[in-house]
Each structure stands twice: as C-alpha cells, then as structure tokens.
Amino acid sequence: MVENGQGEGKPNRLSASVDNLSQRFYFSEQNRNFTTQYCNIYTSRLVAMRDSLLQAAKRAWGNDINYCKLMELKTGITSCIIGTLFKRMSARPNILQEISDEYNLIPLPPRTKYADDSDELVAEDETQRISLTGNINVTKSVTGVIVALLGKELDGGKFYVNEMVSAGLPKQIPRPFIHNDKYICIVSGLNLGSSHQGFLTMQLFIDFITGRLTEGQEDRKMCSQIVQIVIAGNSAAQQNSSTSETNKANSKKFSSRSSANTLEGIKALDEILTQLCSCIPVDIMPGEFDPSNHIMPQQPLHPCMFPKGFQFSSLKSVTNPYEFSVDGVRFLGTSGQNIDDIYRYSYFEDRLEICEQCLRWGHISPTAPDTLACYPYYEKDPFILESCPHVYFVGNQPEFSCKKITGDQEQEVLLVNVPSFNQKHSCVLVNTRTLDCKPISFDLYENL
Amino acid sequence: MTENYHFPETVRNRWARPRLNSIDVNKDAIIFQQLDMDYYLGSPVPGMPGAATGPVPIIRMFGVTKEQHTVICHIHGFAPYFYVEVPPTCRQSEMREECQLFQDDLNKTVLNDFKSNKEKVSQAILAVEVVAYCSIYGYHENRQTPFFKITVATPRVLQTTKRLLEIGFSYSSHPVCCYQTYESNIDFEIRFMVDANVVGCNWIELPATKYMIRGDHAPGWNNAQSSLNRTSRCQIEADIAWDQFISYPAEDEWQAVAPLRLLSFDIMCSTSRGTPDPDKDSVIQIAAVVIRQGDYEPFIKNIFTTQSSANIVGCQLHTFSKEKEMLKAWHEFFLEVDPDIITGYNVVNSSLPYLLNRSKALGIEKFSHLGRITNEKTQISSNTFQSRAYGKRENKVMNISGRVQFDLLHALLRDYKLRSYSLNAVTFHFLKEQKELLQPSVIADLLRGNDRSRRRLAIYCLKNASLPIKLLDKLMCIINYMEMARVTGVPLGCLLTRGQQIKVVSQLLRYAKEEKMLMPAHKAEAGDDYTGAIVIEPVRGYYDCPIATLDFSSLYPSIMQAHNLCYTTLLQHHHLSNLSPDDYIKTPSGNYFVKKNLRAGILPKILQNLLSARKKAKFDLKNEKDPFKRKVLDGRQLALKISANSVYGFTGAQVGKLPCLEVSQSVTAFGRQMIEKSRQLVEERYTIKNGYKFDAQVIYGDTDSVMVKFGLDTVEESMELGKEAANYISSHFPSPIKLEFEKVYFPYLLINKKRYAGLYFTKADTYDKVDCKGIETVRRDNCPLVANLINACLQKLLVDRNPDSAIKHVQQTISDLLCNRIDISQLIITKELTRSDDEYAGKQAHVELAAKMRKRDPSSCPTLGDRVPYVIITGARGAAAYTRSEDPVYALENSIAIDTTYYLENQLSKPLLRIFEPILGENKAESILLKGDHTLTKTVVTSSLGRLSAFVKKRETCMGCKAVLDDNSAVCKHCRHRESEIFQREMNHLSEHENRFAKLWTQCQRCQGSLCEEVLCTSRDCPVFYMRKKVQKDLKEQEKLITRFGDLAW
C-alpha cells in the first residue's frame, strides 16, 4: 500500500475522521433474494412511518383528531387518515406497451415529463385505497409518499382532503463545533470515456485537488483544507446514442454490451483515482451509468475494475445512496436517480425543491419501487429518513444550486445539487464548519 | 313475505326504481320502450277482440318508460295464422261454403290428432277465409290467386295443422291433397311484430282510454279498474287490444334509448379442484354492478358474501352467516333492483345456471323466480346452435321473462375474431389493461385467510363484474344490437341466440305483406354449393409503386338492385315464351329475371331501404355533436350495412328458410363479370396509346375490388387517376352499381389470392395504416412470435421500405430463437380442449398435454372448454410433435429445452417464405432467411430434470475462455488481465435483469390495484406472467456468477 503522498510543493493537507454510516444499503452476498415482491417494502414503509405521521398530524391539527384506518371511514365524518399516496398516471410508460412496441416498432415520442393533467391521486393503507379530491396538489405529489390527510369521505366513495401533512424532517443530532474550516469536495458525472469529454478540465481538477494549480496563499490554504473527495456517480460514460441502436439487437443477444467507451472510461477512471488517492481520501459512489447493479441501492463499484486505484487505502468504494459523517457532521447523498425520477413524474421544476420535499416527506426515494427500480426489501425500507443529515447532496444535476432549510425542531440542512462535471466543469466544496457551499469551476473559457 | 332479509330502508331505496305516480287511464298515455316479448295462453278477456272461448294466445310485451318505470302490457286478440293455396277442385262460386267445410273438417282432423289435449283446445281452427295473394317465389305475372287464410287457436295448434295439411288432407268430397303451406314457419312473436308494425326495441304508446290497468294501485287512481289480477312484478301492468296501441318507428325522437338497467355479476365458488359442482360446492361471493344505460358510472356496486371481509370503498358489502341466507338475500336484491338487461362474462352458460342449480340443491324454492312474471320459474335447458357464420355451439337457455340476457362473451364470439376469449385477453385487447387472474387454489387460500384477504377476493370478483360493463360501453354492444333489432325488426334477445336468417325473414315478411305476397314454408335440405367469387388471378409480387384500389360499394346489394334480382322476379324457363325479350334478362349464370317495369323485386326494395337509411344515418352522424347520440347513429349505420349484406347470404343459405340459388349464383356471376369488365375498361383506356404515361395493368381482382397499377410514381397522381377511372367505369354499369375509388396501396405486397398487405393511403400525404389480408397476423393457431415477426417485417417492408432491414430482423429473430433468447410467452400455442381425449381422431398436442397434466396434478389440469397453452419441447429423436407438448410454466421452472427447430420449421418458415418470396424469389428466400449463418449457432439448455442430470457434476468454467476451473473463482489465470472487462459484461447483464425485474413486478403491483397486497395473479394470457418468472430465475443465476468475482460489500 502506498501512503498518502505528501510530496514537496503540495499543501500540508488537513485530515478528518470520516465514518461510513451506510450499512443499511449494503447487501451481503446471501441476502439478495428476488422471490419477494414489492408489496413488502410498501407495507414496511407505512408501518415504520405511521407513528411519525400521527405525531405530525397531532402537531398540525391537535391531539383530538379522529384518526382511523381507511376501512373504518364513515361517510361525511371528518377524520384523519394515514396512507401511501399512489398517483394514477395515464402517460406513465408501461412494460406491456414496451413489450408490444418491441414487435410493432412504433416508437413512442420521448418525453421529459410523464406527469399529466389527468393524473389522479389515491391514498392507500393496508386495508384499502381511496381516491382523493379537494385540497391536494396532484402535480406536486408522487407515488410512495406517506402522508396524513384530514378530510372526509364523500358519497361517491372519494375522500375530500382539507389538509395534508407529511412526516417532516426527522430528529437531527446536533452539529458538532468545529474549529477549522474543512472542505468536502463533491464531484459527479465525470463521464469518462465519452467522446466529448474535456481532458484538460479533468486535469485542471486533479491539479487543483492535488495542489498543483494553486497560486495564491488563499488558494493554497483552501486546497489544504479539502479533506475528502466524494465522487457521486456516473464516472463512466453513458452508452452514447449511436451505439445504443446496434445495442438493441445485441442486448438481446447478450453479447458484450459493455461498449468500448465504458471500458475506456473505467480505465481512465482508474488512472485518475490513482492520482487523486495519492494525496487525498476518495469515496466513489456508483451512478446510473456506472458498471454497477441497476436497482437501488447501488452496490459499491467492484475493486477488480480498479487494479491501480485500490492499491491505495485512501480509495473507498461505497454505495449509492451514501451516508457518512465527517468529524460528526452528517452527510447524505445520492447520485441523482431519485431526484431525476421525481422530476419526471411530477410538475416540479426546481430540483432543490424536490430535494427539500423528499426530506420533508421523510423519505429519500419515495418513487422507488414504482418508477425507480429498487431491491424488493422484505422487512424494511432503508430509504426512510431516520435521522436528519446536516448536508444532503444530489449528484448529476443540470446546475449547481444550494440552499439551507430548517425544520420545526430547529433542524438545519444544507441541500446541494452537484452539477455533472462533464457538462458544467465544476465541483462543489462544502465547508463542514459553516455549512457554506461553493462551486469551483474549471471551465477553460470562463476562467482563463 | 316474512322470511325476507331486512335490508335497511336506505339500501332498499337506492336499489328500487323511482316511485310510480298515479296514472289516469282517461288522460295519461303510457309510453315505453319495449325490450322483450313473449306469449302465453290465457282465457279470453271480455271486451277484447279474438276468440271468445278456449285458450287464447296473449302477447306479453315488457318495457321501460323514460322515467325508469317498468311496464308489462298484455296484448289481446292476436291469433296465429298461415296460408294454403285453395285447391283447384274448389268451387269458386261457393267460396263461403267451401271455407266453412274446410274449416269444419280441418278442425275435426286436428282435434282428432291430439293425443292429449294439453291446452284444452275446443276449437282448433278459428277461421278460414279466402284471400287473394301470390307467392313470393317466382314471377307470376302479378296475378293473385286465392289462398285460404287459416286462423288457429294457438301456435302449437298451428304446427299440428301445418303438418296435417302437408302430409295430405281432404275435406268434404275433395280428393286428398298435399298442401303447400305459406308463412307457417314463422315464430308467433315475429308474426305479431310484423302485423303490428313493431320492431325490436321501439317505443310503444298505449293511448289514453284505450287500455286497462291491472291491480290495486294507490287510492286516488282514477282507473277503470280491471277485474284481472296482477301477474307480474312490473310497476305498470296494462291490457290492450292488439290493434289499439301505437308503435313508433325508430326515427327522430323515437331513436332514444330508455334508461335501462344493466346488471352485470360474477360469482365465486368454494372449490379447489376444476369445475365447481353446484350440488357440493357452495357459492361464496356474488358481486354485482348495476348501471343505467346512458350513465357514466354504475349506481350500484355490491358484494354478497358468506364470510366477513374488510370494507371496500364505494361498494356495499352484505355479509351473511349462511350461504342459504345470502342467496335468498341476493335474490331479493335482484328483484328489487329489477334489471332490464342481465349481462356479465359467460353468465348464461356458467354463473346464472350455477346460481339456479345451487339454490335448487339448497332447497331455496323462490330463487328460481327471476323473471318479471310472479309465478314463473326459471328453468334451464340446453340448445345447440349452429350457423354458417358462427359455427356450432352449445348454449344453456333460461326463461327469464321481461329481462334480456345479454352475455358479453356471446356478443364477442359473434362479432370479433380473437386469439383468446378469456376475460383477461379480451380486456387487454380492447382496454389495454391487464386483469388479475387467480387460481382456484389461491382463491381457497385467500378464503381461509383473514378479512383482508377475503376483501381482496371481493375486489377481484367485483372487477370481474364491472369489466363487462366497461367493455359493453367501449364496444357499444348494447346500442349496436339495439339498432340492429330496430333495423331488422326482431327482438333484442333474438340477436344473440339466433342466426342471421331471422333478421332477413322479418324484413322479407314486412315487405311481402305490403305487396300482398306470401312466403312459402321451405323444407330445409342441403344442396350443392356454387362457385365462389375470385376472378382475376393475382400477379404476385412486391410492388414498389402506388397501386390504386377501386371498390364496388356494397357490391352484392347493388347488383341485386341493379338487375332486379329477387324471388318475385325469378322466371322459369317455360314462362319465357309469354314474354317479350325486352322484359327480362338472362344472368351470366343462365337464370332469368323479369325487369323492373313488370315487377319490382322485394329484395331490391329491402336493400334500397337499408342503404338509404344507412346513408341518412351516416349523414346525421356527420352533423351530430352529442357523443351518446353519435354512438347510436354509428351503431345504426353499421347495423344497416351488415343487414344489407346478409340478404345475399340468406338467398344462398341451403338449409335456410327460403334459399334461392338462382338469385345467389346470379349475384356472384354478375360480380365476376363486372370485375372482368372493369379490368377490360381500365386496360383499354389507360394506355400510352391514349395519351397516358403508362399502360395500366390490373394486377388482382377480389370479390368487390380491382387493384390497378397505373405505373405512376406518386400517391397523389394515382389517386387522381383512380378517381377518374372509378367514374369512367361506373358509367358503364347500371345504377346503383358504383365503383368507388377508395385507397391507394403503396408499396403493395401481393402474395396470393386473398393474401396481401400494403400501406394504405386515403390521403396523399400520410398513410392511414398497414393493411393486411389473410396473413398470419391474427391466426389463432400460431404462436405469438409468428404474428409479431410478420408484423414487424411488414412494418419494415411497407412503412420503412427497407427490405434489407426486414431480412436482418428475420435473421436476428431466428438466431434469437435458436439461441433460446426468445421469451417463452412468444412461443406459446393455445388450443381449446373441445372434446375428451378419446373423441379426437388423431393425436393432438394439447390433448396429450392435458392428459399429462392430469397425471401430475389432477386439481389444476385443464378441463373441457379451457384453452390449453403449450410449448413444444425437445424429445427423443423422431418423436412426433404432439408427444412433446409441455406446460410453459413447467418448462420454465425446470429449464426444459424448447424445440426451437420445430418453431423454425413448423411455425415460422411458411409464413415467412410467403411474404419474402415475392421479394427475394422462391429459392433465394429460403436460402437467405432459413439457411444462413445466423442459423448455425444454437444454444442447448440442460434440463434440471431427467435421468442423466442427476449424475452430472458441474464444474465452473472461466467466464472469459470457458476453461474448466478448479475452484469457484470467476476467471482463469490467463484471463486475469481481462477481469475488469469480463466483470463489466456480467454486471451489465445483471443490471438488465434487475431493470426488467423491477419493471415487470411493479407493473403487476399496479395492475392488481394495490401497493400493500401481494401479487397473486396467474393469468397466462398476459406476457408478463412468463417474463417475470423467467427474470427471477435469470437474476438468481446471474447473481451467482457475479459473486464469483468476490463479495461486493467488503
């Protein structure tokens, strides 16, 4: 093993204690079992979240609310119900159509949004489901969210909603007091191996991290304060569209679908990781296009693909989602699939708003398993937000953006959308002391 | 009734029909839409016309008013009758006396013939009178001849009388004579409808003062109270003479449809094996959905069940401790909600008889009182229905007076050709939804479970009951059938239980009556068939240029009209001498018919009426905005079209009521001649010589269309020329024959007679669809792979115009097939198990399989009437295919190898060669498609079953080079440097499987309509069923491979 290189001219880097808190996202090899069905994850989600919803409902509407299960509803009596939302969507892609399309070859027009004005909401608990109407925003609700609803059943068998509350931010451990500015660098969407990839910007990024780019005292100081890099998915290039045509036939053939560009990308990534790890700890998360499994939670990228990088103990391959703490500051992040999916199936335009909603819903990825593929968990739902992070970051987003939100129990969370490096040529630095956040751009044309 | 179940008042009010306000006979007319009609024998009612003694037939008409009130109307005074020719020996001068003699003697003979006079008829023959009519069959120079019109006491007497007259009868001193009877084979109800100008589902008015109201109604009713007792459950029960009511033709405001109540239901029985037996297996649940015609949502959804279940929103749940109680209560519900139309999926042959038999077994006497007549018991009998158009079928028949039994399954069997008729398949086909299907064993488990699991069962049952309503609405069945009933004049209930003939008979009678003509009673006997219609041999090939298609609109009807072909105009040879040659025509088939000036035929008149009504309906449709009225009009025009076409069929039906081969063969002969003439006209006129760019060529002529290759390059030019040609040719034919230009095919693939495909243009700029005739896209005895592949090829050939990509696609698919990459659902062949094994002459795959499955598990094997899905698996060399059929699920679970060669050679090759031969040439097609490199690689699956597999010890091989490994690692040392690449490849497969797994199982979760309930569906009509099973297996195996690279989490 090679120790963290602290060669000459390089900044004397600070260090931090980083703990991986993502145990719940790991599988050991025995327990992946695909004979279970998705109903179990919905049931466990509902059971696990019911209490916090009930409390939220009591906070909002008083202790004497008439809470009942759906089957106990009586027409016309105002009651509080707790259930999973399900959105009926006419435009949702459907495997049945896909199957027939495979043979009829009528391409569906590609869409960026599958939400539609005709969508309807349904609430469901273990006992049954009921259509919702009234004071409820269909366009900004998604399937899988657990909510408490105050309203009454109408004659026609629909539930008229007066008000709706969600679980809200869960409890947060207090943020430790930290003396020094320390930065976590988050980067995503390196997209290595793609044809339009800037080698130069990549090199600039490496030089910046390793301290070779720093000019002034300020810069050098800041650089030395970066204690950890997190690569939030999509390090390897997506299959580009020209190859995907031929791959349609090939995918059936099960010939090597891993096209040359991914292979190249992984090789290049290995080199880059080697350079980075020589001077700083790196956590690498898998993303949508990385050679990892498809369904959430994605398992760590396999070390056999990085024979050089894994020479360093400073390289850690981690899950997506990934939760960790840096000197006691809690980070939670994903490679972006969860937010992209909600974006597609709702009328949300602001992605930060989606991040905020997710936290307030108390769930990292409510649309899994419905529209986002996830493992069929049997007795738990690991995506429930059990404690509130201090920083919530999402990779592979179109733009950088960040904001701080607060909860009603004085929780404070920094939300960060990390742009795709390949498109925006920037990474994000998060200060663990102040929870300030800034993008560092390596765009050749903007900066130079 | 003290033993009634006590439903809460609110529930009852919801079910009940609106209260009836008082009716004043002197002021109020009763107006209703009649739906059903029957007759019974009763005693004569004073003041009514008809026989004054003995049993008289009384017509019962059931209907519904605009206000949803039910009406029963007893119609008095109509007696059955028929005609015979007056024998030549009859004294013309003493007709009155002759009539009397005839009547007396016939009466005696008939009464003598009765072995037991069940109906207690004292006067069999009510009247005999002489009328001047003529037979409909043949031209009689418009001379009317005397007929005896024989009015008899009851329809049954009519049959006896008819028989006696036909075998020979003599009266007074006349010699024995075998009489030809006329109109003696007409159903009594049809006879009545014709004479009273009633058509199916039309509106009837009982004018004020003309009718009597029965029963003790609320005080204050100013009624001439009838002395007759109420006999029915209808809200209004009235009596009227048969000539006193008004029957409105279905026009303008009378096209309306009353708010009829449709009840759809489904039952669930407790059985774990095969078909439930009503003597042993109890009914657990009955789900019912009731909707008013014209509404969007059902107003009642309920479940009757014997076991407690959790509530269902929007559905009333009625729980009973005992099955007997439940059935009694459901019966009460049924009577209270009082449906006009009973529907559901296969209710007539299954659910309804089951309920009846079950309640009989439980001794619930009153359950069989389902009809609107209070003391009538519903009984079940069987009836074999055979028709040229619909094939042979056995049906149960139940008498439920006043309610129409409209089984959706029967309507679909009649109107659509489908691969499968299971409710699942049908739902997917028409609504693009899948529906859960539960196995009996799963149902039994759910039943033993808790309230929640039983609730699930209830929802399942409810869905089965509500889907037929949805489908009826989507397919507009009720409206279309109602319009058909109105157009053809037969009762609604007839349309699903009878063939095409009755419709034509009803129309024929109506016209004949106006013209004072009679229909002879024909004895059915089989005869020879006559030549079909194809005329111009196809010039096979793939045409990459526009082909204009000229169609004769309504060809056969218009030929009959143009040439005045009819029973009434048919000339026999010996008549020719009496006529001038200008008065008749000789048809191409050598038959003679008189021209219009001598006698206008009845059939042309019927057709004229139908087609002009259709034109009007189409015109109204164009201008109508209201969606419901549009539905009615569209249904009407379709009904009119079908009816017009069935007239020709009627004259050709050998075993029909009145076949006339002279007419039908003349029609087809004319058709052939016209097609031939059109070809001549086109090919003579559109030539380079005449200044056109190319010599036109007719490449194919079908029954009523001609395909012309004008040689032009664009669709637009071809359209113009097509239109011109259509007008030009039309001018050479007598009106109303009209050649219409309809469409251009471009490109066009002409495979053979009746087999072609093309891209269909009606507008110059965009195509409408891919049109296929006679190609394996819908055939039911093929596996779906064939239809899908052919469809894809046609799409590529015709739409993309890329024969190369079509060929590639075929090669890829064949390669996929041989390498086992085709989804098993694509390879499933289904056949219906129609007879028990020993009845089948030859060995058949699905029968063999059914027997095999019975051995494995008698409880879940297919039974008679089920469609059996199977795949062909590999077997001993040379074993016949039928021995190698296997249950797809069994094959999947045990990794049994599919015989891919069988699929290639027996399923794919012929249809493929058929479409590609015109393109590639005969020999080349086979060598390119079926024998190329792509057929060389084959994957052999090792079964987990079988004797040998037990002895085989598997050792892992390197994923890079297939070298045998000593340990359980992923790659051998020589491939170590490629480990990353190999890993990525395997990981990609895993991702794909995972993705598929997620998509498939979430789809099932959505389809079953809940998030928290387990998916239990085992619908084999759904492609997802096999895929999701396969993907679980694939995932397990792929996961095993991945773990050989070392643990992911470390």
Automatic annotation (TrEMBL), chain A:
CDD domains, sorted: MPP_PolD2_C (cd07387)
GO CC term (a single one): delta DNA polymerase complex
Taxonomy, superkingdom: Eukaryota
Residues annotated as domain DNA polymerase alpha/delta/epsilon subunit B: 184-401
Domain DNA polymerase delta subunit OB-fold: 37-163
Cross-referenced Pfam families: DNA_pol_D_N, DNA_pol_E_B
Record's subcellular location: Nucleus
Entry protein name: DNA polymerase delta subunit 2
Organism classification: Eukaryota, Metazoa, Placozoa, Uniplacotomia, Trichoplacea
TrEMBL record, chain B:
Reaction equations catalysed: DNA(n) + a 2'-deoxyribonucleoside 5'-triphosphate = DNA(n+1) + diphosphate
Domain of life of the native organism: Eukaryota
One GO BP: nucleotide-excision repair, DNA gap filling
Domain DNA polymerase delta/zeta catalytic subunit N-terminal: residue ranges: 77-158
Record-level GO cellular component terms: delta DNA polymerase complex
C4-type zinc-finger of DNA polymerase delta domain span: 958-1028
InterPro entries to which the protein is assigned, alphabetical: DNA-dir_DNA_pol_B (IPR006172), DNA-dir_DNA_pol_B_CS (IPR017964), DNA-dir_DNA_pol_B_exonuc (IPR006133), DNA-dir_DNA_pol_B_multi_dom (IPR006134), DNA/RNA_pol_sf (IPR043502), DNA_pol_B_thumb (IPR042087), DNA_pol_palm_dom_sf (IPR023211), DNA_pol_type-B (IPR050240)
EC annotation from Swiss-Prot or TrEMBL: 2.7.7.7
EC top class, as a word: transferase
Family matches, as PROSITE patterns: DNA_POLYMERASE_B
Molecular-function annotations in GO: 3'-5'-DNA exonuclease activity; 4 iron, 4 sulfur cluster binding; DNA binding; DNA-directed DNA polymerase activity; nucleotide binding; zinc ion binding
Protein family according to the UniProt entry: Belongs to the DNA polymerase type-B family.
Record's protein name: DNA polymerase
